[in-house]
Amino acid sequence: MPTYGKLDSFDESEDWTQYVERMEHYFNANEIDEEDQKRDIFLSVCGKNTYKLIRDLLAPAKPGTKSLADLTKLVKDHRDPVPSEIIQRFKFNSRTRHSDESVRTFIAALRSLTEHCNYGDTLNAMLRDRLVVGIKSDRIQRRLLAEPNLTFEKALEIATAMETAEKNAQDIQASGTNGTFQKQINKVSKSYTRNNSGNSKQGDCYRCGGNHLAAECRFKDAKCHSCKKKGHIAKKCRNKSANGNLSENHREFKSRFKPRAHFMEQDESSESENEVYSVFHFGNKSNEAYKVQINVNECEIAMEIDTGASVSIMSEDTYKEYKSKFRIEPTSAKLRTYMGEQIPVIGRAIVNVNYKKESAKLPLLIVKRKGPNLLGRDWLNKLQLDWKDIFSVVGSDNQSSDLNVILEANKEVFKDELGTVKGMKAKDLC
């Protein structure tokens, strides 16, 4: 009769229950039904340490006088006494998913912890609740909480699908970095071509729309009747349509605000968490920047308003200063300059934002770079900023700076002592 498999001796590092289960499968596979034969096979292969333990526990009786069930229970009671149900439930309800742990590995660990919890018919409900609470991913957790009549099976399906989708997207981005980068370079090239006379293509004159090079356009010194700027005519003015529907404060802001060097643009092909952002530059502070104090997670943060930035970001220095106030999670969002330099992203946080009487929960990227904190379009769309107040602060600073320049240039006139009149002759009228 052929023999299937091999029954090894018991390894002290192995779980005793699992060893007994493997032994039962071995007996079934080889059609060993005689109880005495099962016992004798077990005693002959269990190993000298296990055999000695059994003999000591039975003394003065001999192992051969007991049944296999009695022997395995004897070892189990000695090695693995039944744990406290309360403690096991505490361990189950305290278990959360580790950062490097997959959803299915997390569920396997939870199931293992339920062995002595005695949940009975409520097991699936307990597993569902623990999955939702301990998933350690705000994105997956929000999706699960939004699902009506959520069952454990449905929760596991959604969580694993989202996890797999995120990993696949990261793999695609990693393999398609060059393509994405080339796409972003092409975006810049188009914009630059329209604004650079040396590179303008014939048939696409951005000054008047005619079929010639921009450098040869007769309107290159003309003044636009719409925006009052030099170099194009009103029908090709890009500011005309952009300013048509803006409020008075926003039109004033756009007319006074110079585009920042921190321009960030979201790639059209990106979705949800798999964003790729392009950045011209990040790091230099500008004296012309419009700044505003924003309460972020109960911290007063100075942020520079940047209408070119599609997302709001916090510098590493600011994050370190208020680190205890922020809970960040990993993100697949990427920041990359048009020269190919990648700005490392530490993580993403959902923060409580308060500005005057407004409040909102908004996303914030934390970057591993020094530089200003940027208030981008994602926050500008949610917050109604007090533009007049912002302009007055910047205007006051600029006026103060201009006054200092005048005083320095004419310090002889404004010094605190008597002076003399220069360039004039006095006549004696007596």
UniProtKB/TrEMBL annotation:
Note the coiled coil stretches, chain numbering: none
GO molecular function annotation: aspartic-type endopeptidase activity; endonuclease activity; nucleic acid binding; nucleotidyltransferase activity; zinc ion binding
Q: Where's the CCHC-type domain?
A: 223-239
Residue stretches making up the Peptidase A2 domain? 301-379
Which InterPro entries does the UniProt record give? Peptidase_A2_cat (IPR001995), Peptidase_aspartic_dom_sf (IPR021109), Retrovirus_Pol_polyprotein (IPR050951), Znf_CCHC (IPR001878), Znf_CCHC_sf (IPR036875)
Q: Which one GO biological process term can you cite for this protein?
A: proteolysis
- Domain of life (superkingdom): Eukaryota
Q: Which UniProt keywords apply?
A: Endonuclease, Hydrolase, Metal-binding, Nuclease, Nucleotidyltransferase, Transferase, Zinc, Zinc-finger
Under the heading PROSITE patterns, the entry gives:
ASP_PROT_RETROV, ZF_CCHC
Q: Does the keyword Coiled coil apply?
A: no
Spell out the protein name for this chain. Answer: CCHC-type domain-containing protein
| Species, as recorded | Mytilus galloprovincialis (Mediterranean mussel)
